[in-house]
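C-alpha cells as discussed.
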C-alpha cells in the first residue's frame, strides 16, 4: 500500500538537522538553477554520470519556499473540493498529498527533493526532453493516474525510462514518491520512513537561506 506524505507516520519521524547548506545545481544539470542540499547535489551529479551515453538528468525544481508550497496546496485542494463536494478535512489532506506535501513535512521545503526528468543530448546538446508517460506535475486527475510511478498504462519506452531513473537514483540512496514519477528525495522525513532511518537529516528551510557557491 502506498504511503502518502499526509500519513501520520511521516510526521512522527524526528528530524536531526544536519545543517547542510543549500547549493545551486550547475546549468548543465538544471538550466532553471534549482537549489538543493549539498549532499543531494552530489548524489544527483553521480546519478547523472551513471546514465547511458547521450542521456542526462534534467532537474526542474529543488528547494521551494513555504509560501510557494502553501499556494500549490491551496490551489490543488480547491480543485479537489470542486470534484468532491462535501469532502472532509482528513480526506482532503490525504487526496491533496498525492500531488503536494503538507507544509510541515514537505521535502521540497527542506531542500531535500527534486522534480526531474531525462533528456537526450545526443542530437541537441541543450537536451531534448523525453517522454516518461506524463508531463511533470500532471495531477492524478489530469493523467488518469499515469503520473503514479508504477502505472502500467504507459508506453513501453516511458516505462523503461522510469525504470532507468529508479536504477541510477536509487543507487545513490534517493527515494521516489510513488504518486509522482518525477519526485525524488534524500534526507527528508519521507526518505527516513521509507528507508528505515532513525531520523530525517533535513527539516524545513522556512526562510530563504544564502546559497553556497
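Sequence:
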Amino acid at each position: 500500500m502506498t504511503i502518502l506524505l499526509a500519513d501520520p507516520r511521516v510526521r512522527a519521524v524526528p528530524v536531526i538537522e544536519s545543517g547542510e547548506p543549500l547549493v545551486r545545481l550547475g546549468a548543465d544539470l538544471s538550466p532553471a538553477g534549482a537549489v538543493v542540499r549539498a549532499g543531494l547535489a552530489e548524489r544527483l551529479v553521480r546519478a547523472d554520470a551513471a546514465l547511458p551515453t547521450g542521456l542526462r538528468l534534467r532537474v526542474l525544481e529543488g528547494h521551494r519556499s513555504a509560501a510557494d508550497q502553501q499556494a500549490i496546496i491551496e490551489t490543488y485542494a480547491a480543485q479537489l473540493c470542486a470534484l468532491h463536494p462535501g469532502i472532509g478535512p482528513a480526506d482532503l489532506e490525504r487526496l491533496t498529498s498525492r500531488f503536494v506535501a503538507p507544509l510541515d513535512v514537505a521535502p521540497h521545503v527542506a531542500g531535500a527533493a527534486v522534480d526531474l526528468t531525462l533528456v537526450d543530448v545526443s542530437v541537441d546538446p541543450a537536451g531534448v526532453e523525453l517522454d516518461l508517460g506524463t508531463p511533470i506535475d500532471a495531477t492524478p486527475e489530469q493523467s488518469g493516474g499515469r503520473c503514479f510511478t508504477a502505472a502500467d498504462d504507459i508506453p513501453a519506452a516511458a516505462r523503461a525510462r522510469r525504470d532507468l531513473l529508479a536504477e541510477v537514483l536509487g543507487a545513490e540512496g534517493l527515494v521516489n514518491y510513488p504518486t509522482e514519477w518525477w519526485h525524488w528525495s534524500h534526507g527528508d522525513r519521507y526518505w527516513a520512513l521509507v528507508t528505515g532511518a532513525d531520523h530525517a537529516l533535513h527539516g524545513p528551510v522556512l526562510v530563504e537561506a544564502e546559497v553556497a557557491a
